[in-house]
Amino acid sequence: MVREDNSFVFGTEDDDDEAIVAAKGKELEGAWAETKQEVQKQMQLLASFGTAGGVADAAMVPRTSALLQDHIANLRTLIVRYEMIAQQYCTEEGVQAAMRTVQEWKDQIQALRMSSRNANLQAKRNIDQAGMSEVDPALSAADVDLRRRQLQTRAGMTSAAEGITDGLRRTRQLMIQQCTLLHYLCNLPLFSKYLQEVERNAATLTVLDQSNATLRKADAEYKGQRSILGVTRSKITSITRQDLIERYKTFKY
Question: One biological process GO term for this chain (predicted)?
Answer without folding.
Answer: retrograde vesicle-mediated transport, Golgi to endoplasmic reticulum
